[in-house]
Design brief:
The structure holds two protein chains of two kinds. Chain A is α+β, with helices and mostly antiparallel strands. Chain A has ten helices and 18 strands. In chain B, 41% of the residues are buried. Chain B is an alpha/beta fold. The chains are: A alpha+beta, B alpha/beta. Chain B: This is Glycosyltransferase family 2 protein.
Chain lengths: 320, 435
């Protein structure tokens, strides 16, 4: 079984369905554009990854479009399919994409045969591939928010080159950093994130801890100042049946601001051995991934950048 | 000059003692007996007694050191961050070591909280409690009391600094006598060289705090433990519910403790060096506040002291009586006679002023020698003798006028309830409930 090929505006469009189901890459030379014609998100993603990971310039640079009609089936928050393809088209209307398509096919036809990957290291190849792609697409390498990513941000296309989450995170950053230090890329600040100092995870749990025993089961209570008799204590001092009654002068506290106010807060450590009472609770950070306990100042501060190919970088992309 | 002395002695020669007694009987019947004779006798008595009971004091000290109870030094304050370093230094030098220092910040608007928090982190302050909303000194002190763990609470102002043995010395009376509900410390003016204002206050503190309180304590009518330095057993403070709204909360709490039949003692050897107002304006403001509280607490809030009911205590009555009589009544008398002379025989003032001044100057020197006699640092006291001639004017005119204004103010206009020393929300409640 082969997939349908139709011709629109003189371009051969391959509607991918069987290829996706069977996870095989079709011949890149016989058609100009690939359009995903399948509703299963998981299968589509498997297929797109195959394209991105491909070592064939004709495949990894192939214009691949998703169809808006299927978007409702790809109902994930991250919308990662978009970042592994050239985006959505509606009703197979490709007229706006034609300049892009021609540009890509011109680039492929010009450089495909000149490429000799034999003496490339894997890393060099990844850089070459990245530059090819972002040069032809005239796009910046943009970080996107992704909750499955270790740090909350991801460079979806580059991370797809690698096969596990941790490796993807480290290698993609190294790749970008290397390209940046070689002046092939410039960068623009996007965000700052705090990561676990042991495993670089951004999935961290912040909570107030007891300064004495570091226990984090704390109870915060308000201080109450009774104006009339100048008694100050925590809320529970004042509770009498269903009313608030001052333990010093036995009069009832009715109106906040008139009879009493709340000048501050106090924490109670619920650790039975400690029971420390304090006001200034330090924050403790617990890494969800590696369970390391750390102070906020120990966290690794990383800046998130968006990258853009420089004039010097273009020479690499064009393989001059 | 010779002419001046001639006239002066001529005045004495010509003096008609009948007229003098008519206009100034209270000087001879009240002021001199109280400030010179009673004081002298009581001072002599207390000195010899203290000398004779040296052994008992020594064993009281032993008992204290043996028990070594935890003592909370409680420092409530508003914008006092700048004094904390010195305070901590003076705590570290204390001969008594089992101290927890609790600093309470009453809604400071400066960087007190930041300073104090960092000292809390280093452990120099055991506990720093901050109330972000200002509530007045009483509420800050009570908040600190709520979290105190010590058997005794030493109440201190942030800007006062203690002698190295002050905490030890102020605790000894609890072991020396039975049933002591509070011990007042001795105050010495630290910034005595700063201005004439502070030098005069130095002399005043020597007399009215050092000497007078030994005497009052001896007569068992001592009734104000200065907020600057005093010690209380925690259970006593808990029983009276801590401090009530000021100004004058230190006098108020002492009365509350007296009312439940505890003895109040002054300990002259526990010395705290305190910072006093350096300008006449600031001093006037302070004294207006202090004097208003005489009316507010002695006449209004604690009026039951005057009532002969089942809670009546003669010592409390007498303490109040002495206070009101020598404060309020004598002031009224003084003004009454002043006006009477002006109206009846204004020419007599020419004789009357130098005469009265001479008498009070003698009295001032007498009191000065009392202070000198009991002083540990005689040289320091002696060096201030040239200021003694100003003392009758300072006490007799300046202080009297300020006091009288404050009394009238408070009696007629309840001005202490308008004092910005307290936030308005608490003053309103205090007024409403007649506190």
């Amino acid at each position: 079984m082969t997939d349908t090929v139709i011709e629109i505006h003189g371009k051969k469009v391959l509607l991918l369905e069987h290829a996706i189901e069977h996870d095989v890459l079709p011949d890149p030379c016989s058609t100009d554009i690939w359009v995903i014609n399948h509703s299963d998100e998981w299968l589509v993603r498997r297929f797109l990854r195959r394209i991105v990971r491909s070592k064939n310039i004709k495949i990894y640079l192939k214009p691949v479009f998703l169809q808006k009609e299927f978007k409702k089936f790809y109902a994930t928050k991250d919308n990662h399919l978009k970042y592994l393809s050239d985006g959505y088209i509606k009703g197979l209307d490709i007229i706006e994409k034609i300049p892009l398509i021609e540009q890509i096919s011109f680039f492929v036809s010009k450089y495909a045969d000149k490429r000799n990957y034999e003496n490339f290291t894997e890393n060099d190849f990844f850089i070459q591939k990245t530059f090819d792609y972002y040069y032809t697409r005239k796009k910046r390498i943009t970080p996107v928010l992704k909750h499955k990513s270790l740090t909350g941000y991801s460079y979806p296309r580059i991370e797809t080159y690698f096969y596990n989450n941790r490796e993807a995170f480290i290698n993609s950053r190294m790749l970008l950093q290397e390209a940046f230090t070689n002046n092939w890329l410039t960068r623009h600040y996007v965000d700052t994130s705090h990561l676990c100092h042991k495993c670089s995870s951004g999935f961290l749990n912040y909570r107030e801890i007891c300064p004495k025993c570091s226990h984090h089961n704390l109870k915060a209570s308000n201080l109450i100042h009774h104006f009339r008799c100048a008694y100050v204590g925590v809320e529970k001092d004042f509770i009498f049946k269903d009313k608030m009654v001052c333990p010093k002068c036995s009069s009832e506290l009715r109106n906040l601001g008139v009879d009493y106010d709340r000048p501050g807060k106090i924490f109670n450590c619920k650790n039975k051995k400690c029971q420390h009472e304090f006001q200034d609770a330090p924050v403790g950070v617990h890494c969800v991934d590696c369970e390391t306990e750390q102070a906020p100042h120990e966290l690794v501060v990383r800046k998130i950048y968006e990258y853009e190919i420089t004039a010097q970088g273009m020479k690499i992309g064009l393989h001059l | 000059m010779a002419n001046f002395w001639d006239t002066y002695f001529y005045m004495w020669h010509r003096l008609d003692w009948g007229t003098v007694m008519r206009w100034g009987w209270y000087i001879f019947l009240l002021d001199i007996p109280r400030f010179f004779i009673v004081e002298g006798v009581a001072l002599l008595y207390s000195r010899t007694k203290r000398n004779r009971t040296k052994g008992a004091w020594k064993s009281a000290r032993q008992a204290l050191l043996q028990e070594n109870p935890l003592v909370t030094v409680l420092v409530p304050g508003h914008n006092e961050g700048k004094h904390l370093y010195k305070l901590i230094q003076s705590m570290k030098k204390q001969t008594y070591k089992n101290i927890e220092l609790i600093v309470v910040d009453d809604g400071s608007t400066d960087n007190t909280a930041i300073i104090a928090r960092s000292f809390e982190r280093t452990g120099d302050i055991r506990r720093f409690i901050s109330a972000e909303e200002r509530g007045g000194k009483a509420s800050a002190a009570n908040l600190g009391l709520r979290y105190s763990k010590g058997k005794y609470i030493v109440h201190l102002d942030a800007d006062s600094s203690l002698e190295a043995d002050a905490v030890e010395k102020i605790l000894i009376p609890f072991y020396r006598y039975k049933n002591v509900g509070a011990v007042g410390g001795n105050l010495v003016v630290r910034n005595r060289e700063q201005s004439l204002t502070t030098t005069m206050q130095y002399l005043e503190y020597l007399q009215s705090i050092n000497v007078a309180r030994i005497v009052l304590s001896q007569l068992r009518i001592y009734k104000i433990i200065s907020g600057a330095f005093g010690a209380f057993p925690k259970h006593v403070l808990d029983r009276v519910g801590g401090w009530d709204i000021g100004p004058g909360l230190d006098g108020d709490i002492t009365v509350k403790i007296r009312k439940i039949d505890y003895r109040i003692v002054f300990e002259e050897e526990a010395v705290c060096k305190t910072h006093v107002p350096a300008t006449w304006k600031a001093l006037t403001k302070q004294r207006l506040r202090w004097s208003r509280s005489l009316i507010r607490f002695r006449i209004r809030k604690h009026r039951d002291i005057w009532m002969p009911n089942k809670n009546f205590r003669f010592s409390n009555f007498f303490a109040f009586f002495e206070n009101i009589f020598f404060g309020l009544v004598l002031d009224a008398l003084w003004i009454f006679y002043m006006i009477k002379i002006l109206v009846v025989d204004p020419y007599f003032l020419v004789v009357w002023f130098p005469f009265k001044y001479s008498i009070y100057l003698l009295l001032a020197f007498g009191q000065f020698f009392y202070s000198l006699a009991i002083s540990k640092n005689r040289y320091q006291v002696w060096s201030k003798i040239i200021y003694v001639p100003l003392y009758p004017i300072y006490m007799g005119y300046y202080m009297r006028i300020v006091r009288t204004i404050a009394y009238i103010d408070e009696l007629l206009f309840f001005d202490s309830y308008k004092d910005t020393w307290n936030p308005q929300k608490t003053s309103a409640k205090a007024r409403e409930h007649d506190m």
